[in-house]
Fold each of these.
Amino acid sequence: MTTHAIEARNLTKVFSGVPAVDSLNLTVEAGEVVGFLGPNGAGKSTTLRMLLGLLRPTSGEATVLGHAAGSDFAREHVAYVPGDVALWPQLTGSEAISMLGSLHGSMDNAYRDELIARFELDPEKRIRAYSKGNRQKVAIVAAFATRADVLLLDEPTSGLDPLMERAFRECVLDCQQRGQALLLSSHMLSEVEHLCARVAMIRGGKLVKVSDVAELRTHVGIEFEISGTIGDLSGVVGVSDVSPLPDGVRVRVTGSPAPLLAALSSQDVTGLRTREASLEEIFLSYYDESTSPVS
Amino acid sequence: MRRASTSVHALVWRQIRTSTVVVSALLLSFVKVGLVSFNASGGVTGMRSMQVLLKNPAISALYGRAKSLPTAGSLVQWKMGMYLAFAVAIWSGLMATRVTRGGEDDETWDLLVVGRTGRQPALAIAMAVLAESGLAVGLVTFLTFLSGSQGTTDSLLSSLGIVGMAWCGGAIGVLSSQLFSPRRSATQVALSALGLAFILRMFADATASNGWIRWATPFGWLENIGAFQHRSVVWCAPLFLGSLAITFIAWRLQEHRDIGIAWWTRADRSQARLTWLKTPWGFAWRERRSTFGVWAVGLVALGLTFGYLTNALVQFCRSDPAFVKLLNRWGYGSMVTGRGFVSEVCVIMAVALGFLVVTMLCMVATDQVQGRLDLPLAFGTSRTKWMASAVFSTTLTTLTIALCCGVATWAGVVVSGTSMSVAVPLEGMLNALTTAPLIAGVCVLVIATTPRFSYIIMAALLSVMYIIAVLGPTLSWPRWLLDLSPFYHLKLVPDVATNWGATIVMTAAGIAAGALGWARFVRGDLAN
C-alpha cells in the first residue's frame, strides 16, 4: 500500500452544527507541491489545522506519512507557516527561530543562515518590532530550515513584498527538488500557478476539484482571437463565448481545436492568436458555477 | 465626529463589560453577605463586644481603623471595605492596561486612533469608559447598601470610595500603559504600585506614629473618608483629583509619543539568549520569570509587613486581658501569641498563593487565545508537554515564593522584636500550599474548557471560596458549602496539625480535575 505524504479521507469538521469541512478527500505525495485554493471561509485553514492536529476531525481521518495527524511521528515530520504569525513579542527573531527548531528537533543551521540572508531578515529584532511581513519571514525561515518532510503553508506570503515572494518561490522549488511534500493554501493565484502542478479547490467546506493545472485549463478552454472576415462559428463543435472584435471575432474552445481550425480553413483569416486561461479565470469559472464536489 | 466617538465608546465598553458585570455581581454578593453577617454576629450587642478588637493596631493594619461598629454597614465597611476597594482598583488597573497598552500591542488601537476620532480623543474616550465602569460598580455598591437599610450618606460615602479606587486603579493603569511596554510589563508595574500603596496603608495603621503615611497613599485617603465612621467627605477630593491628575498626565504623555511605543520600552534589538528556549520546560520558566519576580517582591513585602505587625499584636494582648478573652470567644484565641498570629497570616497567604497559581497557569490560556501556541505545537511539541511544563514551572515558582514569603515573615517578626523559629512561618506556608493542587487542577480544567475567560472565572471562584471560608462559619452556612472552600480546611499550623484528611481529598480532587482538564486540552480543538 502506498504511503502518501499527506492524506485526508472523508475529513469532516463541524462547528456548532455547521460543517466547515465536509467529507474532504485529498492526497499529496512526496516531492509534490499542491495548491489549495478557495474563497474566504471555504475551509482551507480548518483543513490545515486538522492536518496539524490542532483541530480534531468530527469524522474522517487525516494522516501524515501514514501516521495520524497530530501524533508524535507526524509532528516530528511537519513544519507549518500560518497566514498570521503570532509569537511571543519579547523574543527576538533569532530566538523564535531557534526555539521552533529546538522544539522540532532538527534544524539545518547553515540553511537557516542562508534563508535569513535570502529573506533579508534582521534576526536580532524583537518580534514586537517586526512588521507583519517580517513576522511572516520568521515562520518561513523556521519552517524551511527544519527540512521537514511535510510543509503545510497557510497563505505564507501574505505581507511579503514581490522580491520576497520570489525568494519564497525559490525555497519551495528547493523543497520540491529535495522530495519534500508541500500543501500550499494561497490567494495568490499567480504563485500557485508558478509552483503547483496540481491544485485542490474547496468551496463551502467541500472539495470541488482536484486536478492538474493543465487539465483544469481544458475545462475552461483556450481563447482564440481571429482576425479577418469570419462567418458564424457558433455552431462549431467545442466553440463557445463568441464575441465580435473590431477586426474579427473572439471565441473560446473547449476540448480539441480541430473542428474550429477546419471551419476556419475555408474563411478569410488574416491573423490568429491563442491564449490559455489563467488560474484566476479557472478559479473564477469554478466559483461562478455551482460545481458538485469531487468524489 | 460624534458618531465616530460613539463607536469608539461602544468598542471600548465591549472589551470591559463582562468583567464589569462580574465585579459588580461579586461586590453585590459580598456586601449583601456582610450585611447579613451583622445580625448573625449578634447585631449591635455582638459588635459592642468587638470594641476592644478595634483598638488593636495589628487588626487596624489588616482591616483599617474603626472606632465602633454600630451598624451592619459599618461592619461591612471595616471588615471588607479595604479589600473590596483593593480588588476593584486592581480590576480597574487590569482593564486600563488591557484597553490601552493591550490595544497598542495587538494594533487594534491603531484602528481607533486613525479614524475620525483621533488619538487624543480616543484615549479620552477610553478613560471615560473606564470611569463609567467604576461608576457602575460604585452604583451597585450604593444600591446594595441602601437595599440593606443603611443610611444614604454612609452608603454614598462608601460607594464613592469604591468609585474613587476604581478611578485611581484605572488612572495608574493608563499611566503605566504610557510608560511601559508590552502590556504584561505595564500591568505588572501598575499592580505593583497598587500593592505598594496598600502595604503603605498597613504600615500607616500599624502604629500611631506612622499615621502620617496615610497621607501618602490612596488607601489612606480612602480610610480617611470614614464611611460609617467619622464621615469626612473632603477626603474624596484627593482621591478623585489625584486620579484625574494622573489621568491627565497619561493623556499628555500619549500626545508626545509614537503609538505602539511606550516611553520606556526595552530595546527593539537584542542579542539572542537561547538558554531557556531549547525545551518547553525551559521556555515555561522563561515566560514566567518576570511574573515570578514581581510576585516574589510583592509577597515578600507583604510577609515582612505581616511579620512586623506581630509584636504590636502580642504586646497589645499582654496589656489587655479583655481582648484575649474576646479573641478566644471569636475563635481567634491562637492570635494572642506571635506563633498563632503568624499561622493566621499564612492562612491569608494561601489566598495570595492561589492567585499566583492562577496567574501562572492562565498564561497557557492567554497564549492559546492569542494564537501563540499554534507554531510551537505545529513544530513538534505535544500539548501534554506544554501543559505539563506550565504546571511544573508554576509548582516550582509557587513553592519558591511561598518559602521566600515564609522567611520574610520570620524576618519581619524578628525585626519587630519577637523571637521565633523560622520553622514556624515555613510550616505555615507549606500548610497554605495544601490548597494549591486543588486550585491548579480546577484551573487546568477551566483553561481547557473556556480559555478566553479562564482568569476571570478562577479569580471569581477564589474570591467566593475565601468569603465562604471567612463568613460561612459565622453565618452558620451548611457544612457541605463550607467543605467546598479549600481555605476552610486550612488549620493554624504549626499550633494545630495539618488537616491531612482534607489535604488528601483536596489533592485527589485537584488531580481528578487536572486530569479531566488535561484530557480535554489534549484531545479537544485548539481554538484561538
Amino acid sequence: MEPRGVYVHVPFCEQICHYCDFNKFYLKKQPVDEYLDLCDIEIKNTLQKFPTNGISSIYVGGGTPTSLSTKQLEKLLFSIKHYFPIHPEYEWTVEVNPGSADEEKLRMMKEIGVNRLSIGAQTFDPILLKKIGRDHQAHDVEKTIRKARDIGIENISIDLMFGLPDQTIEQFVDTLHEAVSLPIEHVSAYSLKIEAKTIFYHQMQKGNLSLPGEDMEAEMYERLRTYMNDNGFEQYEISNFGKEGYQSQHNLTYWNNESYYGIGAGSHSYVDGVRRINHGPLPKYMDSVIKTGFPYREEHPVPLHEQMEEEMFMGLRKIEGVSLPKFEQKYEEKLTDVFAMVIPSLIERGLVHLDESTIRLTEKGLLLGNEVFEKFLLVD
Amino acid sequence: MNQQDRIKRRDKIRNFSIIAHIDHGKSTLADRILEKTSALTQREMKDQMLDAMDLERERGITIKLNAVQLKYKAKDGEDYIFHLIDTPGHVDFTYEVSRSLAACEGALLIVDAAQGIEAQTLANVYLALDNDLEIIPVINKIDLPSAEPERVKQEVEDVIGLPMEDCVLASAKNGIGIEEILEAVVEKVPAPPGDPEAPLKAMIFDSLYDPYRGVIVYIRIVEGTVKPGEKVRMMATGKEFEVQELGVFTPKPDIREELTVGDVGFMVASIKNVGDTRVGDTVTSATKPTAEPLPGYRRLNPMVFCGLYPVDTNDYNDLREALEKLELNDAALQFEPETSQALGFGFRCGFLGLLHMEIIQERIEREFNIDLITTAPSVIYQVHMTDGEMIKIDNPANMPDPQKIEYVEEPYVKAQVMVPNDYVGAVMELCQKKRGDYLDMQYMDENRVNIKYELPLSEIVFDFFDTLKSSTKGYASFDYELIGYKESKLVKMDILLNAEKIDALSIIVHRDSAYQRGKIIVEKLKELIPRQQFEVPIQASIGQKIIARSTIKAMRKNVLAKCYGGDISRKRKLLEKQKEGKKRMKSVGSVEVPQEAFMSVLSMDESK
C-alpha cells in the first residue's frame, strides 16, 4: 500500500531536555540552512522513487521545529507542500515548543496549511518543568494555545509526562486539571523512561535521581485514564486521549501498521514493506544525501511473520484493539490461528479480551501491555 | 651436546618469574622484556602477550602459567638464555604459584611507585623467599605524577626486609629501566645448579590439554637430560609415557632435541588426561629413575562445591561435554551429575576456591555458550547419624532430618593474616564474625603483624577474602591450610517461594546466626526477583519453623507509554530484550527467578 503519512524531522533544539534521547543537536553553529536544502532534495528523490497518490497526514517533529526561524521553518514546510500531493482531507501537525512559537511563526504555519499543533507542555508544575530541563514557563502553554486559536488553528494537542523525578500524585492531578481546562482537543501522556545518553540517565547512575517507582506510576496512569475519560477526552491508545473526531490521524498510521515516509536525519520510514532508518548525525545525513540522493543507514525488508507481530504489538496499543477480519484480509491467515499458542493463556490471565471481531487489551492488560506484546513475538 | 657443553650452557641460563599485584604492571613489563629480548617481531607483538586467554585479559589476571625462553645479549658481551615463568595472582592458586616459583632461581618483585606494596604481592614474596629465590625489587610506574619511589622503597625495606639500595626504577609502560632489569637478572639471579648426566629429575609446574596432541606438560629440568623416544615416569601417579616431543616457548612452540639442566619447556608424550600429570609431581626416567622425587608435591583436592545447572534444560548434554573438556585441562575440577527439584538435571562440581569456581562458570558461559545457574557454594560436611553412620554432604539440600542427626562436623582451616598493625582490629573483628577461634598473634617487625585464627572453611569460601581486602584497604595478605573437621551447631535453612520449598536455595548455617542470615537472604531475594503478575511470598525456614519472611509485590505497570513515533524497530528490540531476559530466568514453580538469585543466599550484606 502506498504511504499516506509522512514524518519530517527537525533535529535542532535551543535547549536539551533531561529526558530526551531523540536525534537532536544543540542549535548553535549547526548548518541549518544546508540541512533544509538537503531535506528538500530527499523529499524530491523519495517521491520519484516511491510515488504516492495522496498524503493525508503530515507530522513535523523534532527536536524542536519551532527552534528554526520563521523563514527557515517556512522553507521546510514549503518543500513538503511543494512535493507531496496532499489529500483534501488532511491533518498537518507541527510540534511546537511553547517558548519558541511567536505569532509570526504560527501565522506562517497556518498560511501554508498546518492545521494541528502538538505542544510540549509536559507538566504545569514550574519546579518540575525546571527539573526536566524545559525552557518554557507553565503559562507559556496557554498563551501559545490562545494565540494559535486566534490565528485559526483549531486542532490542538498537548504532551504531558508522568513518573517524573519527585513528582507526586497531587502534582500530576493538578496538571491534568489544568490540561482539561484549556481549549484543546487532544492529550498525549507519556511516562518517563530513563534512556541511556540522557541527562537523567547520568543523574541516575550517580544516584541523584529519585523516581516515583512502579506503584506510583501505575497509580498516576490510572488517575490519568479516569480523569481524561471523565472530562471528554476519550482514550483511544495507551498514551493518547482525544475529543470525539480528534484522534491523531498520523499516529494511527503507526498503530495500524500502515506505510509512511520518514524525512530528515534519524527518521524512520516504512515504504513498500521495507523499514528504513536514516542516518542520524548531521554530517552523515548530509553526506549521504549529497552522494547517493538518499540518507539510508539501514534497510530492513520486513518478513511476513514480523509484519504480523508488528500488526499485533502496535495494534493492541489501540483501545479498540486489532480487527480479526482486517487481519485476515491483510495476511490471508486467521489471527487466532497464527497466535493460537499465545492467546488462550493471555485470556486466562485476564490480559486480553477476544470476541467475534476483535482482540484487545483488558484494563489490566493496558497496564501490563509489554507483557502481552512480548508474547506476540513469534520467533524465539 | 656433550656434558661440558651442557654445563657451559647451564651457566648462562637465568630462570625467573615476576611477582606483582594486579594492576602493578606485570603484563606490561613482561611485554617489554619480550620486546627487548627480540623474542617477537613487531608484527607478532600483541599487547600483553603472556595473557593469552580472553578471560585473563579481561580480568587482568593470569590464570594459566606460561614459560617463555628468551635470548639476551648482556653488556658483558655474553649471550644468556632467560626463562620467564609467569604466575597466577590469587589465593586459590597459591599452590600453583609455589610450584612455578620452585622452577626459578630468581624473581622480579614489581611494586607500583604510587600504591606501594600490596597484600597478594607480599604473600607471593614470602613464597619466593621460602623457595630461596633471589629477589630483584623493581619500582614501577615511576613516571606517574603520584609516584613516590622513596616512600615505597622504605616501605619494602620495612615490610619485607629487602635491601633496596640498588632496586631498579622503571616504567614498563614507557620502556624506562627495562635494560637495567635485564642486567640485574644476569648479575643477580644464580645459574641453575644440577648435573646434566644424573638421572632425570624434572618438575611439572603446569599442564595444558591440546585436543590434537594430548596433554602438554610444562617442566623444569632439575637434574639430567631428556630426549624424545625416552620413557618417562610420573613419580606420584606411577604412570609411564614415551616422550614424543620436547621444546620451549619463544613464545611460539620451538621443538628441541633435548631438554637439559636448567631448561624450562614443554613435553608431549601421548598423555590423555591432565590428571596423570599433576602439578608438583616429578618426572623421571623409567629406565634409570632417580631415587628421590623433588620435594613439595601436594595433591589438589577441591574444597568448594556448588551445583551447576543449565538455564535451558536442553543444554544438559552440552554442559556435560563442556565440563568434560575443561576437566581434561584442569586436574582440580571435579563433577558428578545431580538433580534438583527446582532446577532439574545438573552437576555438583568441586573447585579449589571461589575464584576457581567463577572462572570455570564464566568459561562455560563464554566458550561453550551455555547459560548457567550456579547454586551457592558449599563445603563437605560430615554428618554423624544417630545410628552411628557417618555421611558426607556436599549439597545442603541433601542434609538428613535433624532427628536422625547426632552431630555435624565441618572443615576448619588454620588461617594466617598478615597486616600492618593499624588493621589488626579490623582483621580480628572480621575473624570473630566469621566464627573464628583466635590462636596467636606475632609482630613480624615494628609495623607488620601475623594473626592466626582457626576458621570454618565455609566462612572463608563465602566472602571472607573480599571483606578482608576491603576492611584492610588491600594490605592484608591471607593464606590458609586445612586442618581437619570440628563439630559445629549447624542447621539447614530452606527458602520457600510462593510457599514452595526451593531445594537449590537451601543452605547450611550456624544456628546462632540463622535468624539474621534468613532475614538478609529474604530481603536480598526480594530485591533480585522481579515482580511477577501475582504476589510472591518469600520465606526462610528451619524445619517447619518460618524464621524470616518478605513479599514481592505483584507487577502493576509494564507498558511502554513513551513517544517513539515511527521507530518500530526500537519497540521491537525492547520487547525482544524483555523476552530474552525472561529466557535467562529459571521458572521455579510458577515464579521466574533470575540466575543471580541462586547465589544470593551467600549475601552477607547487612546494610540492606
Amino acid sequence: MINNNDKVTANQVSILVFNTIVGAGILSLPSDVSKEAGPNGILAVILAGFLSLFFARFILYISSLFPKETFVEYSSKLITKPISVFVSIVFSFYLLLFVSFDARIFGEVLKIYLLPTTPIEIIILTMLFTSAYLVRYGIEPIVRMSEILFPFIVLPLLIVFFPAINEIDMANFLPLLKVEPIKFLKGVLVTTYSFVGFEILYMVYPYVKNREKLKKGINYSIAFVTFLYVYIVFFTVGIFGHKETSEQLWPLLMAIKSINYPIFFVENIEGIMMGIWTFTIFTSIFSFYYFAVLTTAKLIKVREHSYLVIPMIPIMFLIAIIPDSIASVYKYTGLASTYLSIFFIVILPVILFLSIKIRKGDKRDNEKA
Amino acid sequence: MGFLDKFFGKKEEIEKKTGTQSFNSLKKNMDYIKDKLKDCDDVIYRDIWVGEEQQYNLALVFIDGLIDKDLINDHVMHSLLLDARQAEPNVEKIKKNLYEVIKKATITGGDIKEINDLDKCILSILSGDTALLFDGSEKIVIISSKGWQTRSISPPETETVVRGSREGFTETIRVNTALVRRWIRDPNLKIKQIQVGERSHTDVAVIYIEGIVNNKVLDVVLERINLIRIDGVIESGYIEQLIEEDWHSPFPQVLNTERPDRVAAALLEGKVAILTDNTPFALIVPATLTSLFQSPEDYYERWMISSLLRILRFLSAIIALTAPAIYIAFTSYHPGLIPTKLTLYIAATRQGVPFPAFIEAFIMEATFELLREAGIRLPMPIGQTIGIVGGLIIGQAAVQAGIVSPLMVIVVAVTAVASFSIPSYSAAISFRMLRFLFMILAAMFGLYGIMLGFMILLTHLVVLKSFGVPYLSPFVEFDISDISDTLIKAPIMYLKRRPEILNTQDKKRMKDLRKEHMESIEDDRREKDDK
Amino acid sequence: MKRLKFFFFALIITASIILNGCWDKVEIEDRAFVMAIGIDLFPESNKYVVTFQFPNAAQIAKGTSSGGGGSDKASFSVSIVADTIFSASRHLSTRLNKALYLGHTQAIILGEDVVENKEKFQEVLDSLDRSYELSRKLHLIVTPGKAQDIMLKDYTIEPNIGAYIQDVFKQSRRTSLFPNLDYNKIIKSIHDTDGNSIIPKIISGKDELRISGSAIIKNYKLAGWLDNEENMGYMWLTGNVKGGDVTFEMPGDGEDIKVPFDIFNVVTSKRVEEHNGKIKYIVKIVTEGDITEYTFEKHGQMMNTKILNIMEKKTEDKIKMMIKKAADKFQKDAKVDMLGIGDYLEKYHPNVWDKYKDNWNEVFQDVEIKAEVSAHIRRIGLFR
C-alpha cells in the first residue's frame, strides 16, 4: 500500500515545520502577548522568534550528528537506554497532547463561529479520523499535503488584513519600551506555545534527501513564522489597542470580524477564514500525529507504522474531551507548554549536547590510552 | 525491481501458447485450417495450379471483407497465375526452388513474411493477411493485404478546438501510427507493437521517443501491458483500467485523447503513448491532474489568453465541485455569512418550498444528470438541445410550481456549465461525481463538511501516483519552473525545458536562437562602435 | 482484513451520524432574521423588555414576484419580557414559528433606563460582548425614552429598522452631527477606559428615525447628552470630522445671512504642553471647504479675497465655539475624559501620564483645551 520511498526534500521539511508551528496558537497569540508585554508585544514576538530559531537549529545540529537515526535511537546512546525509552515515551505523549489540544481548540472555535449545536465530540472525531487517513500513508504524503496547503494558509492570512491598513492607529504601539522587564520576558515565554512545532526535527532527519539545505530551510521557515506572527499581532493591536486585545479570547477572529471590506461581501470573510483556518489546524494536527506515531513505531520497533495510527485515536480523543471548558483547555496547554515544551526545546538539547561532548572526550581519552 | 528484470529482455510478445507445426502436404495444412475455421463462411480458399502443366498446387486463404481485393487480384494472383508460367519445366529443381522463386521473385505484394506455424497462420488470416500455402513445403507465406473499410480521417468529436489540426485518430491502428509519424519524423520515435487479448489478439502499439523518455516509466508500461490476461480488449479503456495504479480512485491516471497533435506533444515531453486497434482513443502516460486541464489550443494561441483560460478552468473545476455544496452550507447552516440583503432574498424566495435545501439541490442535480445522460443517447439534433436548455426549462417550471427556488436553478446551471469547461472528459465526470459527495458533507456539517471533503480529497490526490509521477505535480515537490506550464501558460520562449517531474533524459527542448542572434548582432555592433 | 475493519468502522460512524440528524441545520426560510433589537427595563422588576424586529420574508417574496406592494406588514416587531437578553430570544420561540437568528442584527437600541442603571447596563454590555452570533459591526444606539416605542412604529421610508439605521450611519460623513461608531469602537472604548464611552442617540419622528447627538457614558452610567453642536465639537476635538457643514453668519442688509462652509477635508494634529502641573491640550485643525450658499444680492462679491478671509475667520470662530461647548460639557458637566486626552498622554508622554493617571478625572477638569483652527475656502460655486 505504501509505495513511497520515504524520502523528502529539505524544502518540504521546512514547509512542514512552518505548517506545524502555525496552528492553534495564532488565534490567541495577540491576546497572550498583549496581556504581558502591553504595546510592545511585537518586540516580544520577535525575540521569541530568535530564541526559537536558536533552539531549532540546536536540535537540528544534534540530529545531524546522527544522520541515519531518529531521536529514539540516538538518545539511547547518549542518555542510556532506560532513560531514553522513558523520554521517548514522554515525547510521543507530548506530541499527542498537542494534537488533542489543537483539536479541542479547533472544536471550540468551530462551535462558536460555525456549528453551535453540533457536539464537539463529533467535530474532534471527524478531524482525527481525517488526519488518520492521511497519516497512515507515511511521511511523503504528509509533506506533500503541507506543501499544497501552504499557500492556502499563508496568502489568505496576509491578504485579509489589507483593507484594515487605514484602520490601524499607530499610536496603539506606544508607549514604547515602557514595560517592566519581567513582564516582558513573561510575554516572550507566553509566545512559546505558539512556536511549538519544531520538535519534529528530532525525528525527521533520517528521511531528508538534501540535508545540507536543511539549515537554511529552517532559518527561512522560522523567520517566516515570526514574520507572520508579527504581522498578525501588528494588525490586531493596531486595530484594537493592546488593552482590548488582551481581553479578547481570539483576537485574530475578532479582528477579521471587525474589518470592513468595501468590495466584498462584508459578512462572508470570517466564514472563509474559518474554512482556511481548518487547513491550518489540520496541518498541525497531522504533523504532530504522524511524528507521535513514528516515535512509538520506532520505540516498539514495528515495521509498518500504519497499524498504530488508529489505536491512537481513542487516546487523543479522551485527552481532548477531558478539559471541561475552554478555560481549562488553556490552563492545560499553558502547563504543557511551560513545562514540557521548555524541557524538550531547551533542557533536552543541552543535556544531549553535553552528553555528546563528554563522549567525545571519552573517546579521545580512550584513543590516547 | 525483480519484475522489471524478468521482462527487460522480452519487451515484445509474451510467449504464445506453442503453435502447431505446419505439414509438408498442402492437403494436411488445408485440412487443419479448414477444421479450425469451420463454419466461418467468410473464409475463402483459392486453389492455384502453377507450372507449365499446372501441376504445382498452391492455395490462397483469406477472409473476404478484411482484405484488399485489388491487391490479391492484381498482384498476387496475377503474378502467380500469369507470370509463374515462366517456371522451368524441371520438376525437382523447381520444386525445391519453387517456393523460393515464388516467395522472392514472383509475388508483387509489398509485405511478406514466412512462417511455419499453422496457428500463427490462422491468426494472420484473421487479421486480414493472406496465406499462401505450398504443396510439398511446410513454409507458408503470409502476404499483408489488410484493406477493410475504415472511417476516413475526420475531426475528433470529443475534443474540438478553434485553432489546430482537425485530424483525429481512426479505428485502424496503422492509420493512427502513421498520423503520429507525420508529426514526428525522428528515427528515435519507436513503435513497439504488442498483441493483447486471448481471443481478440488486439494490436496495441506503445510509442515513445528514445533518448527523451524516462525508461523507468516505459518499463512499467510494458510490464503492465504484458501482464494483461483478458479475453478481449474492446477499447483502450480496458487497457487503461488494467494498467492503472489505483483503480479505486475517481480520477483518471491515464490521459485519453483522439487527437494526434496531443499525442505528439506528449511524446516530445517524454511521455509514453499507447494506441489500441479498433478505437480512436489513444492513451498517454503518465498523467497528472494538471494535464487534465490542458487543452492543445493553449499552445497554439498566445500566452496571455492561454494563461487566463487555464486559471478559468481551474476555477471552473472548483465551482463544479463545490457550488451546490456551498449553497447548501450557507443556506442551511451559516446564513450569517451571506450579505444581509442576499440572505433576505434567499429566505424570501424559499418561502413555501417544501424541501430542505439539501433535498432540493439533490433533486435538481440528479435531474440534470439524467437529462445530460439522455441527451447523449438521443440523435444528434435533439440531443444537443435537450441537455442544458431542457434542464433550464424544467428548472423554470419547477420554480413556478414552487418546488425549487430560483437561486437553486441558477446554481445548478452554473455548475453544469463549469463542469463542461474541463478539457478532459474523464476528469469532468470525476468532478461531477464528487460534487455529490461534497453535497452530502455540506448537508451534514455545513462549511466544515466542505473543508473535510477537501482534506479527504486532497489526501487521496496527494497519495496518488501515475507511473511514478505524483499526481499533484508540480504543486507537490515544488519546482517553480513547472508552474510555468500548469497554472498559467508562459510564453513559448520560456518553455525551454521539458517538465521536471517527468525526469526525462534530454532536458532541453528549445533554444532561443533568435535571442542569441539578436544579442550577437548587438555585440558586433558594439565592437564596431568601439573601433 | 484491514479493509473490512475499515469499512465496518466507516459504516458505524456514517450510520450514527446520518441517523442522528444534522444538528445545526436550520433551513433558511425557517429562520427569522432579526434586524434590530430594542432593550428596555421592565419597570419595578429586575427584568428586561426586549423587542426584536425581523422582516416578513413572505411579504418580500410577494413583492418581488407580483410586483405590487401588498398591504401586509413588511416586518414584524415582537416584544418579550425576560430575565436576560438571550433567554429572551429563546423564550420567544414559544410564540414564534421561526427560529430567531441574530447574525444579521444591524442595530441595537438601548432605552434610557438601561443606561441610567449601572448594573443593568453592565449586564447588557457583557451579554452583547460574549455573544458569538452578534456581528461586531452593528450599531449600538441610545434613545431618550423607551426603545420599544421606536421599535414598534412603522416607518414608510424603510420598514426594516436595522437596515434604516445602518444606511443612516453610512452617511455620517455628510453631517458629522453624530459619531460614526459601531459596536466595536464603543466596546473598545469601554474596555480601555473601564466604563466610559460615547453612544449615538436616536429619536423617532412621526414617520422617520433621526440620529443626531449622542449620550455620554461615564462609569457605565449615563452622564449627559450632547446636542448637535456639542457633538460636532466633540468630533472636531477627536479629529473625526470628515464632512458636514459649519454655518456662520455674515452681516447683510437687515438680518444676518447664514452661510454654510461645506467641509471636505480636515487635518488634525494634537499636542500637549505641561507647565507647572497645568496641562494644556492643543488641537490644531486645518480644514478646507467650499462656500455653497451666500445670498443672491451679493453676487459678484465672492471673488474678493477680503470677504473670503472674513468668512474663513468666522468659520474658525464657529468651530472654536463648538469645541468649547463640547469641552465644557465634558469637563464640567459630565466630568469624564472622552476626548482621548488621557489616552494621548499615556501613549506619547508616559512619564506625565504616570503622574496623573490615578486621579485623572479630576485633573482632566482643569486641563486647558485650546483649539487652533485655520479654515481655507477653496471653492465658491459656479458664480462669482
